[in-house]
Amino acid sequence: MRIFLIIFILSADIVAWSLFGLGTQTKEKEVEVRMVLPMDVEYEKVAARSHLNRIREAMGLNTLLQNDLLNVAAQAHADYLVANEESSHYEIEGHQKFVGVQPVDRTLFANYASTYVSENLSTHTYSAQSSIDGLFSAIYHRFGFLSQSIDEIGVGTAQDKSKTSNSAFVYVMGNSHLERLCHDKSFSGTGKYYYKICKNETHRIGEKVFQQAQVSNKRYNPEIIVYPYDGQIEVPPAFYDESPDPLPSYDVSGFPVSIEFNDYYFKNVELLSFKLFDSLNNEVIDMLLINKENDPHSRFSKNQFALFPLKRLAYNTQYRAEVSYSINHKTEILSWVFTTQKPTEELHTIEAKDATVHLSKGKSHILYVVPQNEHDMLKNIQFPTDVDIVFIDHNTLKLTVMDEDLDDFEIKSKDRVIHVIMD
Description:
Elements: E1 4-12, E2 16-24, E3 29-31, H1 41-58, E4 65-66, H2 68-84, H3 103-109, E5 117-123, H4 128-137, H5 139-145, E6 152-159, E7 167-174, H6 176-181, E8 193-194, E9 205-206, H7 207-215, E10 224-227, E11 232-235, E12 238-239, E13 253-254, E14 257-261, E15 269-277, E16 287-290, E17 304-309, E18 318-327, E19 330-340, E20 346-350, E21 354-359, E22 365-369, E23 381-384, E24 387-393, E25 396-401, E26 408-413, E27 416-422
Parallel strand pairs: 4-6, 11-19, 20-22, 21-27
Antiparallel strand pairs: 1-2, 1-23, 2-3, 5-7, 6-7, 8-9, 10-14, 12-13, 14-17, 15-18, 16-17, 18-19, 22-25, 24-25, 26-27
Helix pairs in contact: 1-4, 2-3
């Protein structure tokens, strides 16, 4: 009698996912949970800031310094998310470990003086790298990480020891120049000033120094910020989900390519074209350009643009992005390249709903099941217990056969069947 496992894929917040196994036998059912390994949360906290800074450095952006008060706010929200098994930027008063409803409420509670803060988070992610990389695939959160105005960050990481799939990474970012102004003497001269931007709402900041603080970091950052950045490798080929969702009609699409014009240098820029070409220099034509005018959630600034391939990109392929723009009545063209992920094992591409694949014994394999439409993802995977499957993403599996005597078996998902023959 052959026993099968069923793995359910659940998404949470950005592109996070978790795995649960359900073993079935002929007479009875029993729950068999595939446990997520415990994290070293203190290590992952440090690793997250380091990984984010490596990406910013590769793009020529300033690194983000650790701020202890932002750390306190980020950690408090991570603890809240795990305690309540929630995935939101907002907290509900009365729930366990409640600190403040909004991110700014929590930073003020931690005694960070400025109200100019932003927050990114992911849940059900189990390493700093997977958390950061997942957030970079989510366009709104990507722009948050690539902001030219921030220069400090706090990171919070938490995991439920008894239910390790329940985890959270929280990132709170700020501008140290603005925060310091809230500690300076309140403005008392003549002229325009600002207030209600510090923990002490009556604290006044003169217009000139306030504007200088806002652009203090931007002037030292690149004029144009693109992602994936020029020469980047191991770029994920797919985008799945984000909250809020920039592509609400798609469950699976290609990895978005973005460009942002630093508004310290560009006051009025006109985007003329934004294109993507494959390794054969063929233009990828099934695309959607999102900008300030058509952004479904009104998050984009006038200087931010994202090109979404409506179909997944190919693995291990170099792409070239090309942008044409006009500034001061002069047309400029910017071009850069990036390369998508190269599978670590032999790749097998499966297109048919009923397919047969021959695999060599004694090694692992990557099975990429090509989506047949914008909603086609692998769910409720059934396979023998003597086969180990790890999800690379919602359409890609890493398969390892644990039993040398197993010659053939099936992998099932909804209306899909993959017949595996071990040679």
